[in-house]
Design brief:
The protein is mostly beta strands and about 260 residues long. The chain has a single domain, classed as Outer membrane protein transport protein (OMPP1/FadL/TodX) (Porin, Beta Barrel), CATH 2.40.160. Helices cover about 5% and strands about 60% of the residues.
């Protein structure tokens, strides 16, 4: 079960309550959590932000996740960093990233980040660290349509140690999103070099200008998700719950502050 949670944490598309409530159909989103889900989205955000997220996994303390993101807008693009942690003192994983995103004209945005993944597989072994990168692209053909593309771990990095050899997945995600200011619909196709092909769809509706309701459906594993969000001044609060056919329920709470 640790490695199931491990996939949820390290793989793109699964960080932040908004993305989770859309069943990870998030490659076209541009929000405070884009540094985890598609870093190109940070090129088109209006403001910088700092955000924190807490994830409950199957009501097991050992699998809870804590995630933090910092995004700084500058005249020449967006600088961002991300940090995630899951596990216990003797059996854990971390993810730390730093990157840059910017637009290339009015219809194209890209982002790239360098990631370090320290992981402790057992009490008897020292922490092992692997480096990789994450690349994202957004196309904006018109004001309502967004096409997203991201590649996580394009070089096929792996943990290599005396007793441990684990090849991390190369994950390619392609998605399309449509919005009209009130309704957002998104769909993603994911190709995971370890797990295979999966798909996800998500729907978000804006109510009373600053209140959002969301739902999604995904495959591999099959899951149904729902969530809500509320914007209060510079703060955005999000909550999600995701039901997986086996072994159970995931939930996330996120807060972001725009500056």
């Amino acid at each position: 079960m640790f490695f199931m949670a491990k996939g949820e944490q390290q793989n793109p598309g699964s960080i932040g309550a908004r993305a989770m409530s859309l069943s990870s159909a998030s490659v076209t989103l541009a929000d405070a959590w884009s540094g985890f889900n598609n870093c190109a989205g940070l090129a088109i955000i209006d403001k910088g932000s700092i955000a924190a997220d807490y994830g409950d996994r199957f009501m097991l303390k050992e699998l809870t996740t804590q995630n933090v993101a910092l995004n700084i807008k500058t005249p020449f693009g967006t600088l961002f960093s991300s940090y995630a942690y899951s596990g216990t003192a003797g059996f854990n994983e971390m993810r730390a990233g730093i990157g840059y995103a910017r637009t290339l004209g009015p219809k194209v945005a890209f982002g790239v980040q360098v990631l370090m993944l320290p992981t402790k597989f057992s009490v008897a072994e020292p922490t092992q660290t692997v480096a990789m990168c994450d690349i994202g692209l957004l196309l904006l053909p018109n004001k309502n349509l967004t096409v997203g593309f991201s590649v996580y771990n394009p070089t096929g990095s792996a943990y290599n140690a005396r007793y441990t050899h684990i090849k991390l997945p190369r994950i390619t995600r392609t998605g399309i999103g449509w919005h009209n200011g009130t309704i957002l619909a998104s769909g993603d196709i994911t190709i995971d070099s370890n797990a295979g092909l999966s798909a996800a769809i998500g729907l978000e509706a804006t109510l009373l200008k600053n209140w959002f309701i969301r739902t999604g459906y995904g495959t591999l594993p099959q899951n149904l998700s729902a969530g809500t969000g509320l914007r209060v001044g510079r703060f955005t609060l999000d909550y999600s719950v995701r039901f997986i056919t086996m072994p159970g329920k995931l939930s996330n709470c996120s807060v972001a502050y725009a500056f």
